[in-house]
Amino acid sequence: MIGRRTLIGGGAGLLLAGCDRVVQVPAARRILFAGEDMQRGLQRALMDRSALAPEFDAAQRSPFFRPNGTRDPGTANYAALRAGKFADWRLTVGGLVARPLSLSLADLGAMPQRAQITRHDCVEGWSAIAKWQGPQLATVLRAAGLRDAARYVMFTCADLYGGVPYYETIDLVDAFHPQTILAWALNDRFLPVMNGAPCRLRVERQLGYKHAKYLMRIDAIASLAGIGQGKGGYWEDNVDYDWYAGI
């Protein structure tokens, strides 16, 4: 596990939420997702959502964790943050919270850490095993103090799709799951840019497109209405991916 001293003193060297080869043919998309609304609804209702995703030994890690979706946000703001080794990057936590936060990488590293070796499953059909480290999202949300009206957590990212920042949402069950972390390290090194530097979401019980990269903002919200087309995420709104992608 990377220690706090390493995080604060080391240069934040330069992981995978949106999929880049999205099924664009409507007929193929219908086949791919046929019946999934019913399947996911039943899954959410019947599965033990507190259950842990499988964890693996270090020797089982994949030799390379491939990039997917955005490889580099490429914006002027992100380029400036990258040039400064993310010393000026801040993760804003707001919305329906009692105590809005502005967190640096050092702040995240000073929180209790969770390290886990898990398998990433992409909607494209590939998987990879890697080690992730960061504070639990629950730790951050408790520090901010969720208001009673909060029902979901929204993530806004630095990468743009059609000029719009990538966005995703999860409910509070997944937000407070012990394996849901804000990862700043991959395989005991700072996140590479291609994998989402300086911080990304890991929500291990869901498919890869839910694991938002290049995090800039976290907001507690009451409803998915008014966010994009109201389906809860960029791919959900634009390519009919399921909002709940539980595995």
Automatic annotation (TrEMBL):
- Gene3D superfamilies, from UniProt? Oxidoreductase, molybdopterin-binding domain
* Listed Pfam families: Oxidored_molyb
Tell me where in this chain the Oxidoreductase molybdopterin-binding domain is found: 87-220
Q: State the name under which the record lists this protein.
A: Molybdopterin-dependent oxidoreductase
